[in-house]
Amino acid sequence: MPESSRKLLSGLALLLGAGLGIGWLYSQPLTGLLVAALAALAWQVRWLVGFDRALHTRDFRLFQHGDGIWQRIYSRLAFERDRARRHKREYRRLLKEFRKSTDAMPDGAVILNEDNEIVACNRAATVLAGLKRKKDRGQRVDNIIRDPTLARLLHAEGELPGVDIPSPAEDGHWLNCRVVPFGAGQKLLLLRDVTERIALNRMRRDFVANASHELRSPLTVISGYLDSIADDPDLAPELGKPVAEMQAQARRMTTIIGELLELSRLESAGRRGEEDVIDIAALLAECRKAYARDDEAPGITIEAGSTAKLRGRRDEIDSLVRNLLSNAVRHTPADGVVTLSWQAGPDGAELVVRDTGEGIAAEHIPRLTERFFRVDRGRAREDGGVGLGLAIVKHVLSRHDGELDVTSTVGEGSEFRCRFPASRVEAGRPIPLASGAEGA
Ligand code: ADP
Questions:
Q1: What would the pLDDT profile of 250-278 be if each residue is shown by its tens digit?
Q2: pTM (global) more than 0.70
Q3: Long-range contacts of 61-68 (CB under 8 A, 24+ apart)
Q4: Rounded CA gap, 259 and 320, in Å?
Q5: SS3 label, residue 305
Q6: What is the DSSP string of 167-215?
Q7: Under a CB-based contact definition with an 8 Å cutoff, are residues 289 and 345 in contact?
């Protein structure tokens, strides 16, 4: 028992004992006890009222000295109050330091709650995105930075790669936006000025497009002359082979230039514009026709599991299918099988090109969509591969909100799965697999 309690109890016992003794002297022991108890109660009520008053006036002088219970209560209270003050000071200091360090960051950082409302932002965010620290607090960030790609990023489940959007604060400037989840349902929106990268990319794209364009005309002339020379009956026999080789190389250059121009077009064309409703099952059948008379091509099977249509740009989807099919045919022996499949469901649709060909080693798969990447450069050159086909496929897919998923086993075959979101699919009814399957 603490000393103060022991003192209080012994004082109380003494007082009651004295009351009882004096009462007994006057033959009124109970009255004496009662008077002593009332006196003890009055004493404690006095301290209680005094403490309550001190709480209001904050004048605790009465409780600062001594070792009674009320002094102990006060000293504990004072200790807790001082501790709370110290913590508050420390918290303010940390907050100030945090503010100073986030303000020193060149990138914008915006703390959002689960409804995408602004909780706080640093100075860079006010400069880069034109946010107002006090005025915009509590506002939904997608109401202030209005961009459909940012809205998609903010509402997506899980972490997505960043998106580039035009700066709402400065014309001609671009921001890269990333969303990182943290805490209980909060998110951090990170903004980085990528104007320079975008400008460099545009320069590179324009350079490739211009150079390709300029090379096309002289190449057409060279190819024309080569064709005439090759057709000349008086051509010296020893020149036959070199001219044929020159023709093959000219054709290869024409393909490279054509594909580079297609890539530039895909990269620079805006996303808006006319879109078609594409009958994918019919498109697959059309693309298969190109190999109908090719004896060295493997069998091509179509599995159209749905009559659903895809909303997109017909020429781009056509190019996607032709690129994937041409790859599958080139990498599959004549006795193998290439399967083109189209399935749609409530979560979206999938266009799959599967083959039973040579397959691709796992370490090459992540690099397949890089420009000019070829697994076997020497062989690719022989079979006409340029290394731009899958880069085109990737771009077409990203322009149609799709994704490419590649799985492959060396010696067994590969599968290129193109996934499209439900928003791109025009409903159709599922058709039984057996009736949709056709052989080449
Ligand atoms: P290319 O014009 O050379 O075919 P792509 O970009 O279309 O270029 O393909 C890149 C590389 O991926 C090819 O060189 C090839 O090695 C590999 N590849 C693509 N599709 C297949 C496939 N179906 N089977 C095996 N390898 C493939």
A1: 999 999 999 999 998 888 876 666 889 99
A2: no
A3: 67/3, 67/4, 67/7, 68/4, 68/7, 68/8
A4: 12
A5: coil
A6: -SSSTT-EEEEEEEEETTTEEEEEEEE-HHHHHHHHHHHHHHHHHHHHH
A7: no
Which letter does DSSP use for residue 388 in this model?
A: -
- Ligand 1 touching residue 373 (CB < 6 A): yes
CA 107 to chain centre: 18
Mutation choice for ligand 1 from 374, 381, 383, 416, CB with most ligand atoms inside 8 A: 374
Atom of ligand 1 nearest to the CA of 327: 20
Question: Over the stretch 80-92, which tens digit does the pLDDT of each residue have?
Answer: 999 999 999 999 9
* Ligand 1 atom 4, closest CA: 385
Whether the Cβ atoms of residue 257 and residue 212 lie closer than 8 Å to each other = yes
Which atom of ligand 1 lies at the shortest distance from residue 392's CA? Answer: 6
Taking CA atoms only, the protein residue closest to ligand 1 atom 21 is: 327
Ligand 1 in reach of 358 Cβ (< 6 A): yes
